[in-house]
Design brief:
mainly beta; 11 strands; 7-stranded mixed sheet
Length: about 120
Amino acid sequence: QVQLVESGGGLVQAGGSLRLSCAASGRTFGSYDMGWFRQAPGKEREFVAALSWSGSRTAYADSVKGRFTISRGNAKNTVYLQMNSLNPADTAVYYCAADVRGVLGTRADEYDYWGQGTQVTVSS
């Protein structure tokens, strides 16, 4: 069983930065691919970024490419999402997720464990 807890969300002005963290528990967490998704009010949950368990592969949504960076802590039990040049369209609840099959997926149904989410609000 894997438990994921996100933190680091908040209110930021357009052009600002935030770093989200996802702390995980579970002995095999280090062997899972990890992803970040977001969901804005009235919209479906959408893919943001993914990172392979080894850290050698990443994937990003076009809307965040060049602005967001996904990474893993040295102990591999924390995953980060560095978000720069934020704009109001980035406002959403951000979720981290773990994929036990290692497909580096971009769909929510490819992930097996989810955190509770952290709110990010970008003001104009």
